[in-house]
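Same chain as my last thread, 299 residues:
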Amino acid sequence: MKFRFIIPFIIAFLSVTGCIREDRSGCPGDVILTFLYTGDGYSDIFPDTIDKVDMYVYSTVDNSFVAHTTLTKEELEQNQGARLSLLPGTYRIVLWGNAFDRTETDHGPDGAKVSEPGFYSDPEEYGGTDPLYWSCVEISVPETLQDEERECIFKSSHIKMYVRLTGFRDIIGPDGEDIVISVTHSGCPAYTDFANIPSSDRLCDITPPLVGDPEDEDSYILTYNVLRFGEDDDTYIILTDTRDGSELYRISIRDFVRKYNIPVDGVEEVTIPVQITTGPVGIEITEWNVENVKPGFDK
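reply #2:
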């Protein structure tokens, strides 16, 4: 297998210490990583799920940051892993899959996190994150410089939301004109730390764009990702009249997943499909048959 060598990790060290045959303390050792993601099954689905990997290396001695590098889709297709050259010592390597434009990253050792874009600038609205995946391994490079091999098993750090509004076309109006209703997913984690633990101290409201359903001119579709929350966490989908900011309807996602027996905790690939239908008798909330939804919106 042909591995990608990551030379920048050792350049600074070698320029100071050198690599001397009699004293190998200045020489790097090789760490060989392989990547794996099985989702909720047993077969590896990494190539079908993760298109990019960002690697962050820290020293476990003082939690100091060592380096960051990115593996592109093309590089991952050639080799589902990496080969790192590191000086003797102990390291923690944190990997994030699919951190694209919808993800903001702070790799500082004190409070390292991935977050909704604009987390530090406090935007008025969030639009949802990338379909993120996480892995973490600790390795030790011995003085003997023997190769160290590790398998990096990825876990999902997001939830896929499919929301369909039916019967709202006359209320909302034609696409792009006189839209008087907005849909917000309230109470979502604003960030996840480098231990893959979602925030409980800071939450955000996600307002994804309404898109007309190409198969039903009377309906709208919202497809977006949120950072992981638990089955018992309080998050809500809220319909608001944008003319005066009044709340029209509120849906508890906690109650919804309980009613329709949608597993969240302990499941890797979580999809929550909500259908909101308006009619003469009011608004009805049901589970949406996502088999009719074409995948790929989150790539």
